[in-house]
Amino acid sequence: MKPIPEPFRIKMVEALRPSTREERVRWLEEAGYNLFNLRAAQVYIDLLTDSGTGAMSDRQWSAMLRGDESYAGAESFYRLAEAVEEVFGFTQFVPTHQGRAAEALLFGIMVRAGQSVPNNWHFDTTRANLETIGASAVDLPIPEARDTARDHPFKGNIDLARLEQLLEQARPGQVPLALLTVTSNGVGGQPVSLDNIAQTRALLARYGVPLFLDACRFAENAWFIHQREPDWSGKPVPEIVHAMFSLVDGFTFSAKKDGLANIGGLLGVRDKAVFERVKQRMVVIEGFPTYGGLSGRDLEAMARGLREVLDPAYLAHRVGQVCWMVEQLDQAGVPVLKPAGGHGVFLDARRFLPHIPQAQFPGQALATALFVETGVRGCEIGSVMFAKRDELTGEMRYPDLDLVRLAIPRRMYTNTQLAWVADGIVELYAQRERIRGMRIVEQAPVLRHFTARFVPA
Length: 457
Ligand code: F0G
Description:
- It is a single chain.
- The protein is α/β, with parallel strands linked by helices.
- The chain folds into two domains: 21-50 and 311-456, Aspartate Aminotransferase, domain 1 (Alpha-Beta Complex), CATH 3.90.1150; 58-308, Aspartate Aminotransferase, domain 2, CATH 3.40.640.
- Helices cover 40% and strands 13% of the residues.
- The longest helix is centred in the C-terminal third of the chain and has 20 residues, at 312-331.
- The radius of gyration is 21 Å and the shape is globular.
- The two termini are 40 Å apart.
- It binds ligand F0G.
- Residues 49, 51, 98-100, 123, 125-126, 181, 185, 214, 216, 254, 256, 265 line the site of ligand F0G.
- Ligand F0G binds next to helix 4 and helix 5.
């Protein structure tokens, strides 16, 4: 494919600062080989996350001037409510300061210690929010998702057979709700089909279990349905989004992704009693239900962003950027997760660095080597994030995949910059034997990837 020209022109610029290899080696050592510890100014092209890092449009910035900062009943809230109803078809919702706050609120009300919550794949904060309550987060991806080379149009789907088995074996009341994460971040930004959502709902209904969407990247998911699902191909994206949300009892949402905003989130629920409890709890931890830990101008940015994200020209370019990069890397023989997902390029670190065992964190080794050679910052999604010691046997349990995610911020980097990143990865692949494994010297008990310190093994 040819890269799709950016469907925007640039009105304001932020200078990037190139650095030398010597500087980067020193900075990395000072950061304990943890890319989260770098100062952003030390990074040349920052692909750490697509969350809250995108560029807002002129219309979003101008809408922000209308932000109504009233504590209760702000006009900005009502403008957001119009957008939420128009896009998702939900009338009961609260804004939150970001996605994880929506998760904490929902789980705090609906989930208790000892219960199990199935999902196609839990994001790390979603998992941590459940585990801190004492509940278990059960990942049920389809088997195809474990093979990074295997083509499948909806690799984000939940494994319905394993879900049925879990529901069948559960004690009454053990599964308070189920989630579907669209798109599935941990398996590579892969979409969930509408058919899978519908079948999940039908199955859960037999057991009286409500279904929620972790809807961070709902528009990218809808775009893939538009492109790949025969029954829906060519249907307008807003219609597909409505169909997705019509099947669920509620949703959590991080506006830092498909809200095209720098901050913000949403929690939507259909059940009236649950919604009343959300509003009561909300005031204690997030803020009054009409502002939810955000300023009025943030609500305005989100309201506009929710509509802009559905523009087919935007989505074609956005998903096209990722797809084009994956194609460049694949053609050069670099082991990259296929098919391309919606929000980032995922390098398969175990196939990239077969000489590094999982115990020496191939993903971390690859992400840090890429920074040293190019100044590009990615993010390990693998053993640093997910390896766990089995409490019974004492053995380390490693995840199926060690990936390095190069998340593409929305409307931020041009095709030329991303082509340069792809070239840098191809050059690094040519010298892969020189990359060494890592050893952890310091770590926190929860979400260790944010703060752990490493040394070369
Ligand atoms: N769910 C998914 C699938 C996510 O990817 C994220 C955040 C969250 C929930 C939490 O949202 O950050 O607004 O609190 N993902 C970011 C990432 C941080 O880099 O993938 P949040």
